[in-house]
């Protein structure tokens, strides 16, 4: 009797593990297919000329990957009204909204991969994966503006098709790594915190030097 109960428990456990494995495979397949679709959409779809009407104002999304020059008529033309279709296309295909989706997907995939390691004993957390992916996206956006920014306003966000391929690939890889290895995420956050603290300290010292430059006599410094 006890042998039958033990065999039944093993069969139930095997079935449960099999269902869990199928579920993970299905999730990974969907996420990887979605990543491929979003990547191709960002790389191939030209959002030049797509305009999103918002009441009397509108957002001209003609500054994207630089496939063609922006005609003057496009800069001045006013859309007929709000376009939900254009909004969805721009949200998925414009470089800096497209990269948000790519980073979050890759971070979630990495988190799932970490949970499959032998002895992991921890279920994947999609919320933490999305947060890590968004963090990597902010790193990429900040790096783009700081390193290559020209001070020319929205033109600093223009990404050519070839550059998009490299940026999307690098940010996707980094997102997967921070999802797969949470310690790497912690190190990145700690390093940025240290940089911010050093920058704040340096700025405060410069402000102090400007307030009391070398050689300037302050009343409290006069010796009698």
Write a concise keyword list for the protein shown above.
two-stranded antiparallel sheet; 7 helices; 224 residues; mainly alpha; 4% strand; disordered C terminus; 2 strands
Distance between the termini: 103 Å
Strand order of the largest sheet: 1-2
Radius of gyration: 26 Å
Helical percentage = 55-70%
Tell me, what's the shape?
flat
Q: What do the pLDDT scores average to?
A: 75
Strand content: under 5%
Task: Report what the structure shows.
The protein is mostly helical. Helix content is 68%, strand content 4%. The radius of gyration is 26 Å and the shape is flat. A hairpin with a 2-residue loop joins strand 1 and strand 2. Mean pLDDT is 75; it is low at 54-70 and 217-224. It has a two-stranded antiparallel ribbon. Helix 6 crosses helix 7 (182-211). It has helices spanning 2-44, 72-76, 84-93, 95-115, 126-148, 161-180, 182-211; strands at 51-54, 57-60. The chain has 7 helices and 2 strands; from the N terminus they run H-E-E-H-H-H-H-H-H. It has one domain (2-45, 94-210).
């Amino acid at each position: 009797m006890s042998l039958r109960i033990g065999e039944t428990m093993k069969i139930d456990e095997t079935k449960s593990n099999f269902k869990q494995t199928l579920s993970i495979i299905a999730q990974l397949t969907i996420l990887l297919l979605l990543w491929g679709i979003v990547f191709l959409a960002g790389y191939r779809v030209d959002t030049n000329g797509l305009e999103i009407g918002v009441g009397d104002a509108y957002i001209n999304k003609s500054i994207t990957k630089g496939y063609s020059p922006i005609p003057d008529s496009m800069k001045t033309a006013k859309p007929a009204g709000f376009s939900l279709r254009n909004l969805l296309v721009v949200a998925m295909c414009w470089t800096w909204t497209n990269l948000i989706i790519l980073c979050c997907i890759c971070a979630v995939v990495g988190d799932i991969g970490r949970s499959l390691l032998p002895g992991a004993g921890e279920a994947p957390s999609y919320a933490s994966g999305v947060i890590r992916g968004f963090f990597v996206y902010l790193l990429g956006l900040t790096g783009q503006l700081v390193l290559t920014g020209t001070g020319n306003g929205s033109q600093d966000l223009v990404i050519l098709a070839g550059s998009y391929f490299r940026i999307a690939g690098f940010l996707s890889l980094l997102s997967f790594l921070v999802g797969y290895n949470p310690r790497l995420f912690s190190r990145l956050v700690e390093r940025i915190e240290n940089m911010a603290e050093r920058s704040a300290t340096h700025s405060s010292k410069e402000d102090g030097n400007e307030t009391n430059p070398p050689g300037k006599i302050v009343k409290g410094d006069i010796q009698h």
